[in-house]
Prior knowledge:
By secondary structure, the chain is an alpha/beta fold. Strands 3-2-1-4-5-6 form a six-stranded mixed beta sheet. It has a six-stranded mixed beta sheet with strand order 7-10-9-8-11-12. A five-stranded antiparallel beta sheet has the order 23-24-20-25-26. Helix 21 (503-528) runs antiparallel to helix 24 (575-600) and helix 30 (724-731) packs across helix 31. The protein is globular. The N and C termini lie far apart (88 Å). Residues 427-444 have low confidence and may be disordered.
Amino acid sequence: MHKNKENIFLIDGTSLCYRAFYAIRELKTSKGVPTNAVYGVISMLKKMINDYSPKKMAIVFDLKGPTKRHEKYEDYKINRKPMPDDLVSQISKIKDVIDAFNIPRCEQLGYEADDIIATLAKKAEDKGWDVVIVSNDKDALQLVNKSIKVVSPNPKEDKVYDEEGVRAKYGVKPPQMIELMALAGDSSDNIEGVKGVGLVTAGKLIDEFGTVDKLYKNIDKVGSESLKTKLIEGEKMARLSRELVTLDADVPLKVDLADLVIGEPDNDALIKTYKELEFGKLLREIMPSKEAEVKYSVIKRNEDFKDIINKIVDKKKASISAAFLPDGSLDGMALSCAEDEIFYVSLDNSGDSELKRKLLNEILENKDIEKIGHDLKEDIILFDKHDLNIKGKLFDVMIADYLLDPSLPKYDLASIVLRRLEYNFGSADSGDGRDAKGQSSLDFTNDFLSKRASEECALNLKLYSLLEGGLKEKHLFKLFENVEMPLIYVLADMEIEGVGVDEKVLNKLSAKMDKDLKEIINKIYDLAQEEFNINSPKQLQEILFGKLSLPASKKTKTGSSTDESVLKKLAKIHDLPKLLLDYRSMNKLKTSYYDSVSGLVDKRDNKIHAKFNQAATSTGRLSSSEPNLQNIPIKTEMGREFRKIFVPTDSGMFMLSADYSQIELRILAHLSGDKELTSAFKKDEDIHKYTASLIFGCDKSDVTGEMRSVAKTVNFGITYGMSPFGLAKDLEISVGEAARFINSYFERYKGVKNFIEKTIDFAKKNGYVTTLLNRRRYIPEVSSKDERISGFAERVAVNTPVQGSAADLIKLAMIECHNALDKIESKMIIQVHDELVFNVPKQRVKEAGLLIKKKMENVIDLEVPLVVDIEAGPNWYEMEKVELKD
């Protein structure tokens, strides 16, 4: 474009939407609403405006309804696939965003977007403007000339077509694209052209003859007899196709070129949309970081501090926000019981620092004062290192926000404030250098720290009022107050205590694994008869499907798949795939666990202090990290042996494991009220054997190990809403046989079937499901028109009340056990799904086991008994069942 010339960008809106939709395949809100196309369109428009600085612009859309082309050719576009449902649902929101950006939008009934673009382009050309058409449609290329270019958007680099570009790509001049497409057709619009003539052949013919008319006038000059025959037989369609692909540049437009000016964005409208669609990064871009207008006082005199304590004691609540330096030392703490009264207590190394700590503890340890903050577990852990102790009632805004919306990716304070208060003060990923607690890693002056902590203190109070109301409105406050808040203390104590690691055992097992890996690698090379990069899918493809000629069963963009499911099938016919599976399993265990744990051991106490994350899963389950103790692969002996490294830190202690037996199936029995399932648990039946006898129609005494294994898969599959296809895959049987197993199951367990149907109906009606303790999970996808999406959502809807209730139950058990541990001089150190692990004195194993078992089995009343198995031993691997007598 010429810098001094007027210019206009004309964008094919539908083409842009499709491009954006397929460029970003997975992006949804926490409620499951697809947003990938909206986000993609925004990104592409911003890039376009940034790269080209257009002065005028119009985004042109098709409207539903027939056009002149439909009158000429009844089958026009008849074969075009309907727009995907997930894209259809985003079109109106895309148009709202375009309007909010104040970018002109054009659409006219009875005319296609291409024709409107052609008309606008010609009008602009007549005025001497430069025109850029943004489209992936070949039709637009016929308009290219010295003033008009076509840009095909690309995430990496846009493809720009000028006259030379069209010639280089298709071998013809831009106006001749009409002639070329008349012969080659356009399958996307069901324009046939001449059957058997493709783009390359059409390009050569038009380059030689110029036009379709001249081609048919000189048909005898076509050298190939077969091509000549095709052309003669297809002449009528070629001429019709020419009419169909020719753009109409004389649309009677209802818009004037002068009106197509890009205006100033309507930030209020964009903020509303970005907030609704959970576009945090985009929100931050249009909501510049600002400091809260918060007034705070820095407390220097202890007398003043005592006055503040009296105010807080009177109000019985205190928002707290600590300010930590990079080395972990505590600079001070902001305190408040009212948004307009924020106090910052500086903790330096002066003589009265100790007195200030004592005064702070008067507030923090006062059980009658509710402590309000963000990620209070982290504060409790950090305070522990500075002789500060939080006790009593808590209100954690992070957990409150999580309960109200459990599917969000982040719950840092900046993200919560942005969503709930529409206020931007930056976050870890906003580029301003702040860490997860909202503090800057770039500016650690005392003024900054006190100001920042005071701002967070005020924001916590604002969120407190808002979130408390939300929790009560959605009947989540009891869960929050009675489960999630007490659990913070439990998890903090577990992280502070840590888990002992026997580094000698770790090193020994790690060395053995290195040796075993080398042996497997050598065997793989021997079978492949060459060395290659085992971790390279491409090289693996060449070995398996090239050199060994093994059958490929699944395709990917880069060739034949070598994923686990493929290797499992191939392992039945060749030894190499089996070795590859062994290698992958062992290598993952080595790199993900042995190597990572070694780097996480705290040399001061020979422990790892894994984090237990309370706001990380949609079902309410806890997760762990640094390392992830919950994903240790215990199905293999190698994985189970890894548990040997975890030991008590005191020679007089044992590790004790308390594991709920078949908790999810028991919860299913309770929720469904199924008589057969409930009766089996009350009679203490082997539930898998019992189910096998029902679905196979035989006596329990005749149930084989294989039959029990099938029943076990069915039992647990049902709790996950497993389909016949999923069961068939797991059991390696036909879909028909799997369907018979499931049908047989539901014939015997009619209450379970009824529960599943009712749960799905509830989810469709309300958009969410709940657990025993009323925890919510929103599943709007359950009403999707796409059967693949709605089917998955239905399985989630069925599983969540079961898995989520199990999560609620284990949390209650953790609280109960934690409160009783002091009596037996024991510590809870690990939680893995339905299992709790403790450090207990050797001489008190039975006493501890009995107490823990009693607490866990009586934590809630169900229609079926809860059963907890107790084991103990010198490490987490070498454990034996503990026989308990009341």
